[in-house]
Design brief:
The protein has helices spanning 2-20, 41-54, 67-76, 91-99, 141-147, 176-189, 191-201, 214-220, 231-239, 270-278, 282-288, 319-324, 326-337, and strands at residues 31-37, 58-64, 85-90, 128-140, 167-170, 205-209, 226-230, 244-247, 255-262, 294-295. The chain is of the alpha/beta class. The chain folds into 2 domains: 30-132 and 255-308, Periplasmic binding protein-like II (D-Maltodextrin-Binding Protein, domain 2); 135-254 and 326-337, Periplasmic binding protein-like II (D-Maltodextrin-Binding Protein, domain 2, 3-Layer(aba) Sandwich). Strands 1, 2, 3, 4, 5, 6, 7, 8, 9 and 10 form a 10-stranded mixed beta sheet that branches.
Length: 339
Amino acid sequence: MLRGTHTVLSLVLAALMLAAVPLAGPASAKDVVVVYTAIENEQITEYMKAINKSLPNIELKILRFSTGDISARFMAEKDNMQADVIWGVAATNQLIFKNAGLLEPYAPKGLERIQPLFRDKANPPAWVGIDIFMSAFCFNTEVAKKHNLPAPTSWADLAKPVYKGQVVMPNPASSGTGYLSVASVLQRMGEAEGWKYLDAIHPNMAEYTKSGSKPCKDAAAGERAIGVSFEYVALEMKKKGAPVVMVLPKEGSGYEMEANALTRKGAKNPAAKQFLDWAITDEAMALYAKYFAAVGVAGFPVPEGLPKDISKVVYPNDFDWSAKNRDRILTEWQKRYAK
């Protein structure tokens, strides 16, 4: 009888103790940040290893598309915003988002270390740049031998009849790389001559791809001789053993900047700001610098195979002009070249 009473009392005490202990639930859940990005998938994989260690309290829900698709989605959602952060999307598009009133100005911790070129002019900035990527041609030497093709050294070379059907370029409506190439040509040559040039290379185009990296990957696979892409992909394909060389056109490569921004929705999410703070730390910059010749903070080593001073190989980009004229340029491009 006493043993039974003792057992009952033990059960009651255990129940009371459990009731006094808060159950693990929402208090232990991670803070969710919805991120829209155009960063390459293999780079995201590397970056996430560091993010998960440095920000263990945050869960990133990442949506990755090409620049044009991410931008179209974000603009369409302006009245029902889903994204907290825009990460690694072209500065030209960030300017468009800013002008549409979709961004919340935010000065991430450590902003004073960022080079002036790599940030919005407003204070606090609507966007902050993290790295620069450049137009580059991927030239497949084996395909060239098979078809007796000379190596291109310039934008002008792409208009030569010898390359008919052997050039692949990204569609500027869907690809940030495609738009930077077109915008650079128009800025460098002036619009009248620039459109004449784009008319001249159009007959040589085998395809306008949705992705900025695909032209180089197609060239690396031997599908075409020349892929107009950007330097990171050219180096990656070469590292993987593809018979390609990277060509930076002698007139000057177009360039664009991957940049970050806080959205209006994200302004209410402290974890979104915490992520943006991390995204310009030295840890983050060292990761970006593994792939790009210029990053937002000066002093990081340049990857092997890239120019030490990109100012000598790029044509200056007027981001304000590129943003202001993007819709008009894309409308004209579609009218002329969309198949």
